[in-house]
Q: What sequence folds into this?
């Protein structure tokens, strides 16, 4: 029987059809690794006179001191122009800033060029997001990542992907899945298949391509069971929505062996000692697999550390940052090393599953053509558009209610 080619595997865009482009911040200072710095930046901005505010804001075509915008869904920031702002900083919220990097963001629509309000409307309890990663020829690493907090969708290199919420409505309602697909898979596999099952399978087998992320499907119930179990393990490591902290066995857990300096300037890796070095500070053991873990051709650990080591341009709001390396960053770094180590250990299982279900596999693959013959594809246009989710008023510019 002929093998299933990569091009025959369905595109993720046809399985989870509603997607949103990455956020476009327009300026860096409203986002950062610690909330206290964001509040200090806001205070410095509000304290400045009109000329100073103009320089600090970093105006763009979309946002100036006088731009009128609607309230960001779910957040109470005022809609008065920034030129007259005198209040306290809106409470920063957690967001995912590219792969594995949870940071803080001031949730103020006046500061963000393109905030993608449709994402904010469906974020919250019960929601999960899949983020396609930028395609880079020959690069290793996952094609998609999962997040329980709202992701900005940025890719460290290559073409930015899309953000795909698992559900189209708040509270985990109405799966963002092509109509008829879950029923088709349930029949083919002889078991109930839900939206989270599809997401888990996707995390286990998805592969990048120039045409977009592809997800090989199978009618082999045993392979599906192994794939969804593997995908749920990946999901627990990437999203951690239940607050559980991943752990490595004793003897393999990373520890701080030499204190990290207040403001490290140089990052390096000692392969022989399996040590991550920030100036004289040392963390070990850090397996080579964790140090070399890449997304879109960029090493995750290096990027994470460099973002926190960056001093920011003198005189800019980005230059307002912690005077000393916070203990919270150390805890987050140790957790990131653990997560990358555990994900690297799962990679061989993913490769084995891909050989069974991906290019060249025989017998059990569900191709895009099969989904077309079953009437699941093409995707109805309505499924690619956001659902109407408003059950309350959203404040528009100048305190007027938005009409949506």
A:
């Amino acid at each position: 029987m002929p093998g299933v080619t990569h091009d025959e595997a369905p595109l993720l865009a046809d399985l989870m059809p509603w997607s949103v482009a990455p956020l476009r911040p327009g300026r860096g200072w409203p986002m950062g690794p610690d909330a206290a710095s964001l509040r200090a930046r806001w205070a410095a901005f509000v304290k400045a006179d009109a000329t100073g505010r103009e320089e600090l804001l970093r105006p763009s075509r979309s946002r100036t001191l006088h731009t009128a915008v609607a309230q960001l869904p779910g957040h109470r920031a005022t809609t008065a122009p920034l030129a007259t702002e005198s209040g306290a900083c809106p409470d920063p919220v957690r967001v995912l800033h590219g792969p594995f990097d949870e940071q803080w963001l001031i949730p103020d629509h006046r500061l963000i060029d393109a905030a993608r309000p449709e994402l904010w409307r469906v974020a919250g309890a019960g929601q999960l997001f899949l983020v396609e990663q930028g395609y880079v020829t020959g690069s290793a690493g996952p094609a998609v990542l999962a997040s329980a907090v709202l992701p900005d969708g940025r890719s460290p290199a290559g073409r930015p992907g899309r953000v795909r919420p698992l559900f189209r409505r708040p509270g985990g309602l109405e799966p963002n899945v092509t109509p008829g697909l879950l029923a088709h898979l349930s029949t083919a596999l002889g078991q109930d298949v839900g939206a989270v099952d599809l997401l888990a399978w996707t995390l286990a087998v998805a592969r990048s391509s120039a045409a977009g992320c592809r997800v090989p499907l199978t009618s082999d119930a045993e392979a599906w069971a192994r794939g969804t179990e593997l995908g749920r393990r990946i999901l627990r490591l990437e999203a951690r929505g239940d607050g559980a902290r991943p752990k490595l066995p004793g003897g393999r857990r990373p520890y701080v062996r030499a204190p990290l300096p207040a403001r490290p300037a140089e990052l390096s890796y000692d392969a022989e000692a399996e040590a991550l070095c920030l100036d004289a500070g040392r963390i070990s053991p850090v397996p080579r697999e964790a140090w070399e873990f890449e997304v879109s051709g960029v090493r995750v650990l290096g990027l994470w550390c460099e973002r926190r080591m960056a001093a920011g341009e003198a005189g800019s709001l980005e230059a307002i940052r912690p005077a000393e390396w916070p203990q919270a960053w150390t805890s987050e770094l140790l957790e990131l090393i653990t997560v990358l180590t555990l994900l690297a250990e799962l990679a061989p299982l993913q490769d084995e599953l891909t050989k069974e279900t991906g290019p060249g596999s025989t017998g059990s693959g569900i191709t895009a053509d099969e989904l077309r013959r079953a009437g699941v594809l093409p995707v109805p246009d309505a499924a690619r558009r956001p659902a109407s989710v408003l059950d309350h008023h959203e404040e528009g510019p100048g305190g007027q209610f938005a009409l949506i």
Notes: The two ends are 53 Å apart (CA to CA).
